[in-house]
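Q: Give me a protein?
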Amino acid sequence: MTDSKSLDPHADREAKNYENPVPSREFILSFLESAGVPMNRNDLFTALELAGEDQYEGLRRRLNAMLRDGQLVFTRRQCYALPDKLEMIKGYVIGHKDGYGWVRPEGVIGKEQDLVLPFHQMRNIIHGDYVLAQQSGTDKRGRKEARIVRVLEERAMKIVGRFFLEFGHAYVVADDSRIHHDILIPKEHRMGARMGNVVVIEVTDRGNRSRGMTGKVVEVLGENLAPGMETQIAIRTHQIPNEWPEEVTKQIASLQEEVPEEAKKGRVDLRELPLVTIDGEDARDFDDAVYCEKKKAVAGVYGSLLRMSVTTYVQIQH
């Protein structure tokens, strides 16, 4: 038995936030550390000297929130325990094209401490998920295996892949081979995608042991072999910003088709010359050009390479 209100250093904070406060997360963690053994909810309720339905419900919600955030683990005996006491690890899932994966402990660089996740553990897990895991043994090759205790944070990134349609059923195969799932796409969430199109999807349901993952198309990029498609896939896979900020859009809208007089000062006007750009069709800018003309008095061709000063129109904001 303990007077949790007098011992909890965060009791005042909890009293300000809740009408019928329960011990803080910090105090519950400290209490379980001191107890040295896992405890069920009823035992905790009694040991913390709580009373009444409101505080029981408050404790239940607090413990559930701590489970969700990986601060506590719910054991098979329905007790609450500290993850480090059960040799739990937090880490990120690394998928493999063959369906299994690894969990790399948080903060670790390199694969020396990775634990293998068997195929059945990866059924509803996606490469990039942040999980709480526990070592479960070793595989046939002597590698440490782990089981997923809880997904602490699902992969937030969108997935780029190929859209397929077979016998009326649509699914997407991820371009990233570390995501081995075929993700089903309901008819109402296809956005007009056609067979073989490259699309961007969001996973809407992780599924379960008997039902696969489902998702929805949020963007159709086009045909797989379309020019520049590799770039579009890379931009979305690695979340590279590809949309102009609102400030830039506003600045572009203010530009005139006619060259302003102040831009001509200190420059030679060559707009009448037959300039030819040397930038390729897929270039991101067209600021390089050549101009050639024959010289009668001199054998051969005289030429110039010209470059436009884009900084005249794109001002750096400080």
About this structure: The radius of gyration is 31 Å.
